[in-house]
Design brief:
Elements: H1 2-7, H2 13-26, H3 41-45
């Protein structure tokens, strides 16, 4: 990863990884992923 990051002009691998993850998330249909339901905290606190 270090070599790829350097080849793409990054000084730090962490900056490259951050951009890779950001780009991937931007191109992922997050609404299509089943997510865990909210906890009923409002009802439990009452």
């Amino acid at each position: 990863m270090e070599e790829i990051a350097k080849a793409e002009g990054y000084q730090y691998v962490s900056d490259w990884l951050s951009d890779v993850v950001e780009e991937r998330l931007a191109n992922t249909r997050l609404h299509a992923i089943h997510q865990q339901d909210e906890l009923p905290l409002g009802r439990l606190a009452s």
